[in-house]
Amino acid sequence: MGEQPTITQAFSSGPEGISGASQLLRAGEIVAFPTETVYGLGGDATNGEAVAKIFDVKGRPSFNPLIVHVASVDKAEALIELPPKGRTLAQMLWPGPLTLVGRLRPGKGLADLVRAGLPTLAVRVPDHPVAQALLRAVGRPLAAPSANPSGKVSPTTAQHVHDLMSGRIAGVLDGGAAAVGLESTIIGFENLEPVLLRPGGVTVEEIAKLVDTAPNPPSSAVVNAPGQLQSHYAPVAEVEMNATEDPVLGFGAIEGQVSLSPDGDLTEAAANLFGMLRLMDEALKDGDVLTVAPIPEEGLGRAINDRLRRAAAPRQTSTK
Ligand code: TXA
Ligand code: MG
C-alpha cells in the first residue's frame, strides 16, 4: 500500500507543464509522460524509492527490469557499452522506438532496482518532443515501463492513463496520442550480434538492413520470460526467508545486521533489496546462510518475497 498521492495532476505539454512534471519527478514522484510508442510511467532512475514506487503503482507481482530513457545517443552510450552493431543501430535509429540492452558502465548512480539485479541495462532515446523536453528539464535518466497496471494494455493517450492510474500517481503529462502505439523493439547482444528480445516499433527488416543480419531470437529464453529473469541473480550464499532471530537482513521491528527498512516501509525495502543482497552476499562466506526477516505479503512485499523466494530456491547449475 504505502502513502500514495490521491490527486493526479494533469500537465499540458507547454513549458509550465514540463516544469511542473519535472519538479515532481526530481522530488521522487511518479509522473506518466508521452513517448512515440506508448505512455510511460516515469520515475527518477537514480532514486531507488522512486523506482520502487513504479513497481508499486504498476502492481507487478515481481520486479521486471525497466527501460531507462535518456535524451540523446551520447547520454545513452555513456550509460551502457554497445558492440559495433549496437552503436550503428543507436546512431541510425535513435531517437526512436528502439531499446538497446547493454552492459551498464560502472559508477552511473542508477538505482539497482532498475535492472532488477541484472548486469545489463535497457536504454531508449524516445522520439517525442514532449519526452525530449521533459528529459532535458529533469536532467536525470527516467525509468519508465508502459503506464498501465500489470495485465492491462499499454495506454496511448493521456486520458487513457488518467483512466488507468488516477489517484495512484502524482501526474500525467499530456503529449497527445502516441504515434506508434506499440512498444519499442528491444535488442540485446550475444557474441556482439544483435538478438531480438521483443518485437516492437522498429521492424527486424529495418534492423537487418542496417547491420546486415536479421536479429535472431536469443539463445536462451531467460531475458524474455520475466519469471526467469531472476535466475540471473543467484547469490553465492544460501538464502533463508522468514528468519526472526537476528537475521542478516532485517525489516521493521526485526533489526538484523543491516535493515531493508527499519520503519517497515516496503517502498524503502524494495529500493534497498538488490543493493543489500549483493552487499551481504559479498560479505558472507561460502556455506553461510543469508537470512532475511519476514516481509509482509502485501503491496511491494509480494514482489520482494517473489525475488527472495527465487534467490532461496536451490541452485540448478553454476552461479553466474
Ligand atoms: O516503448 C516502450 O518500450 C515503453 C515506453 C514507455 O518506452 N516501455 C515499455 O516498458 O514497454 P516495459 O517495462 O513495459 O517493458 C520493458 C521490457 C520488459 O519486458 C523487460 O523484460 C525488458 O524490457 N528489459 C528491461 N531491461 C532488460 C534487460 N536488462 N535485459 C533484458 N530485457 C530487459
Ligand atoms: Mg508493458
Your description of this structure?
This protein is an alpha/beta fold. Helices cover 32% and strands 17% of the residues. It is built from 10 helices and 15 strands. The protein has helices at residues 15-26, 48-58, 73-79, 84-93, 129-138, 158-165, 204-211, 226-229, 266-283, 300-312; strands at 9-11, 31-33, 40-44, 67-69, 80-81, 98-104, 120-124, 142-143, 171-173, 185-190, 193-198, 238-240, 249-250, 258-259, 289-291. Strands 1, 2, 3, 4, 5, 6, 7, 8, 9, 10 and 11 form an 11-stranded mixed β-sheet that branches. Strands 12-15 form a two-stranded parallel ribbon. Strands 13-14 form a two-stranded parallel ribbon. Helix 9 runs parallel beside helix 10 (300-312). It is globular and about 55 Å long. The chain binds threonylcarbamoyladenylate and magnesium ion. The site of magnesium ion has 3 residues, from loops.
Strand-helix topology:
Elements: E1 9-11, H1 15-26, E2 31-33, E3 40-44, H2 48-58, E4 67-69, H3 73-79, E5 80-81, H4 84-93, E6 98-104, E7 120-124, H5 129-138, E8 142-143, H6 158-165, E9 171-173, E10 185-190, E11 193-198, H7 204-211, H8 226-229, E12 238-240, E13 249-250, E14 258-259, H9 266-283, E15 289-291, H10 300-312
Helix pairs in contact: 1-5, 2-9, 9-10
The structure holds threonylcarbamoyladenylate and magnesium ion.
Give the structure's gist in a few sentences.
The chain has 10 helices and 15 strands. The protein has helices at residues 15-26, 48-58, 73-79, 84-93, 129-138, 158-165, 204-211, 226-229, 266-283, 300-312; strands at residues 9-11, 31-33, 40-44, 67-69, 80-81, 98-104, 120-124, 142-143, 171-173, 185-190, 193-198, 238-240, 249-250, 258-259, 289-291. Helix 1 packs across helix 5, helix 2 packs across helix 9 (266-283) and helix 9 runs parallel beside helix 10 (300-312).
